[in-house]
Amino acid sequence: NIEAGATLLVLKANRGINIAQRTALLDNKGLISLFNCNNHAIFLAEETGLVNYGEISITAPLRNGIYNVGSIVNLSGNITINSPLNRGIQHIPGTIVPSSFTNTGTGTITISSPGDDGIRSSAAFLNDTLATITVTQAIDDGIELIGDVFTNHGTINLTCRDAATAVSPGLAVGTSTVAATFINTSNNSLNIYAGTGNGTSIHIYGMGEVSNFGTIDVSGGSSTLNIINRGLLTNQMGGTIKLDDSRLTNNQGTFI
After folding, report:
1. How does residue 195 score in pLDDT terms, banded at 50, 70 and 90?
2. Residue 240 in contact with residue 208, Cβ under 8 Å?
3. Contact between residue 226 and residue 243 where contact means Cβ atoms under 8 Å apart
4. Is residue 27 classed as helix, strand or coil in its secondary structure?
5. How many CB atoms lie within 10 A of CB 8?
6. Surface-to-core class of residue 167, CB atoms within 10 Å of its CB (0-12 exposed, 13-18 middle, 19+ buried)
7. DSSP tag of 214
8. Which of 55, 117, 129, 201 is the residue whose CA sits 20 to 30 A from 150?
9. Looking at the whole model, is its pTM more than 0.85?
10. What average pLDDT does range 181-200 have in this prediction?
11. E strand intervals along 47-188
């Protein structure tokens, strides 16, 4: 464990932190700084855990910032991931026990300039009431959901790169063959800026579902293809979708 006031600094390792032993748990109350790892900066195998109360800073790993098949809880901590060659966070389902990723308390996750997606999640992911996720300038999707449920009770801010297109949106939900669900709850916000080009804020694929009880605010990008729905989009009672300078395109999907 890393106690408050302590610092762990790792330079150019294969993996900065490798939690591979079954039932192993790392508690961080201090500062973890990982630079230029040759693989994933942080790797969690199945049935392992990481609880972050402090600061985790990851810079320029040659694969993903965090690769998780275990359980991660960011409990009022701060996780910052800059310029990973692949994804900021890759969250994979476990085969023995379910994996999970929870951003809770006043936790923040900030991902900048990933070489692929900001977050790619195919297992349960929770952004809690006071927590914030920010992804900027992803080469592909800001958040891509391929399986399971992503629940947002807090705030999510996504900024697409200016050259983004409909296949590299701020939020991508599901595929034509894999179901995934994004739930945005009341009095909280999903804010997406689709860039200055022809970007798309949200792309709901055929097996994707978005259920909005709160506020979705999109701006920038394409004026005609800002939200593309091929799956199921439900704006629940009390929900608000703000499309001030663009439109929603329902392409063989269902909009309720």
Report:
1. confident
2. no
3. yes
4. strand
5. 15
6. exposed
7. S
8. 55
9. yes
10. 87
11. 49-52, 55-59, 66-68, 71-75, 78-82, 89-91, 100-104, 108-112, 119-121, 124-127, 132-138, 143-145, 149-152, 155-160, 171-173, 180-184
Residues in the chain: 256
Q: How far apart are the first and last CA of the chain?
A: 48
* Angle, vertex CA 82, rays to CA 78 and CA 86, nearest 5: 115
Locus of tokens 């630079």: 35
Q: How far is the C-alpha of 109 from the C-alpha of 232, rounded, in Å? A: 28
Query: Of 154, 233, 220, nearest to 193 (Cα)?
Result: 220
Write the DSSP symbol of residue 2.
B
Q: What pLDDT band is residue 256 in, cutting at 50, 70 and 90?
A: low
- List the structure tokens of 47: 């049935």
Q: Which single residue is written with the structure tokens 């703000």?
A: 242
Regarding beta strands 7-11 and 31-35, do their DSSP bridges make them parallel or antiparallel, or are they unpaired? Answer: parallel
The DSSP code for 165 is -
CB atoms within 10 A of CB 195: 23
